[in-house]
Amino acid sequence: MRPFHWTQAKSVFVPELDAEHRNLHDLAGELQASISDGAPTSVYLPGLRALVAAAEDHFSHEERMMRSAHYRLLKWHKSQHDTVRTRGAACLDRIENGDTQAAGELVEFLGRWLHDHLAVADRMMAAALRANARRRVA
Fold first, then answer.
1. CA distance 126 to 128
2. Which CATH superfamily is domain 13-137 in?
3. Rounded Cα–Cα distance for residues 65 and 43 (Å)
C-alpha cells in the first residue's frame, strides 16, 4: 500500500493548491493508519467522510480555476476528478452497508490515483494556470 506522505517533490507550485494537496495527503494518511491499525468502521468513517468532503472542495476549486483560465484540458481533468467522486461515493455507500473491505480498497485506489494525478494532470494544469497569470500581468 502506497503511503501518503507529502513532500515538496509533489508540489505543483501553486501555493493554494499545494496546501490543499497536502491536506488531502494528511487526511488520507490518517485514514490509512486507522485502517491499518484495524480500527472499527465507527472510528474511521468520520475521517473518510472528511477526506471525501475535502477532495470535493479541492476538485471544485481546481475546476473553478481552470474555467477562469480557460484551460483547454478542463473536460479531461474534470473527468479524472469525476472518477474519484464516483469511486468515493460508491465506497462510502458500501462501507455504510457493512462492507469492511471497501475502505481499504478506496485508500489503495487513492494512493495510486493521487500519485499519478499530481505527477501529470495537476502539473500540466498548474503550468497553464501560472502561464495564464503571467499573461494577465503582462
1. 5
2. Hemerythrin-like (1.20.120.50)
3. 35
Judged by DSSP in three states, 19 sits in helix
**Torsion angle of C-alpha atoms 79, 125, 133, 60, degrees rounded to 10:** 40
| Distance between CA atoms of residues 127 and 130, nearest Å | 5
Cell 503511503 locates to: 3
> What one-character-per-residue DSSP string does 21-73 give?
HHHHHHHHHHHHHHHHTT--HHHHHHHHHHHHHHHHHHHHHHHHHHHHTT-TT
Q: What span, in angstroms and rounded, lies between the C-alpha atoms of 38 and 9? A: 31
How far apart (Å, rounded) are the C-alpha atoms in residues 131 and 14?
11
pLDDT tens digits for range 76-117? 999 999 999 999 999 999 999 999 899 999 999 999 999 999
Phi, psi of 112 (to 5 degrees): -70, -45
